[in-house]
Amino acid sequence: RPVDPPRRPVLFVNPKSGGGKAARAGLAERARELGVEAVILDPGQDLAALARGAAAGGADALGMAGGDGSLSVVAAAAAAQGMPFICVPAGTRNHFALDLGVDRHDVRGALGAFTDGTERRIDVAEVNGRVYLNNVSLGIYGEAVRRTAYRDAKLRTLAETAERVLGPSRQVPALR
């Protein structure tokens, strides 16, 4: 159903997601033109704490421009406060945006949810204390995607992680 626009929305922007997709789209600047406070993340910042702080500081909607991992962190903070969450697909794959039907190739267009949004309720789940939106990764793949190197060298990182997890006596499957 259509909803009234939030009065004090905050958008968190991960500038590294999707190889800099948000910066190339001028996302923070466009968000500010729409009256949305844009917070560009710096390395090492605690996104969960920032999102909780924005909610405690009077934000009435939270958004995230990043990948699925960042989205789930901010969505968890929004859900905990019973406030809207806006998904801006600025990551590499954006599986959650795809599931929602958000055009993953129109990053700036996703900002329209702040001004002309439609409410959709979604299920969230929790595994080991972390909220996830559309998928959770376990085992070797789950370990690999948590490594910083995975972003730039997926197959190599996956193979190295498999070798580390399985140990030197196990044969690592060929990845092609």
Outline the low-pLDDT stretches: none
Sheet with the most strands?
A: 4 strands, parallel
Q: Overall mean pLDDT score?
A: 89
SS-based structural class? alpha/beta
Tell me the number of strands. 6
Widest sheet: strand order? Answer: 2-1-3-4
Content of β-strand: 5-15%
Residues in helices, as a percent range? 25-40%
Question: What coarse outline follows from CA principal-axis ratios?
Answer: elongated
Order of helices and strands: EHHEHEHEHHEEHH
Distance between the termini: 45 Å
Q: Helix count?
A: 8
**Rg value:** 17 Å
Word description of this protein:
- By secondary structure, this protein is an alpha/beta fold.
- Helix content is 38%, strand content 15%.
- The protein is built from 8 helices and 6 strands.
- The protein has a 4-stranded parallel β-sheet, with helices on both faces. It has a two-stranded antiparallel ribbon with strand order 5-6.
- Helix 4 (68-81) links the parallel strand 3 (61-66) and strand 4 (85-89).
- The protein starts with 8 loop residues before the first strand and ends in a 10-residue tail after the last helix.
Architecture blueprint of SSEs:
Elements: E1 9-13, H1 21-24, H2 27-33, E2 37-40, H3 47-56, E3 61-66, H4 68-81, E4 85-89, H5 95-100, H6 112-116, E5 125-127, E6 130-132, H7 139-145, H8 154-166
Parallel strand pairs: 1-2, 1-3, 3-4
Antiparallel strand pairs: 5-6
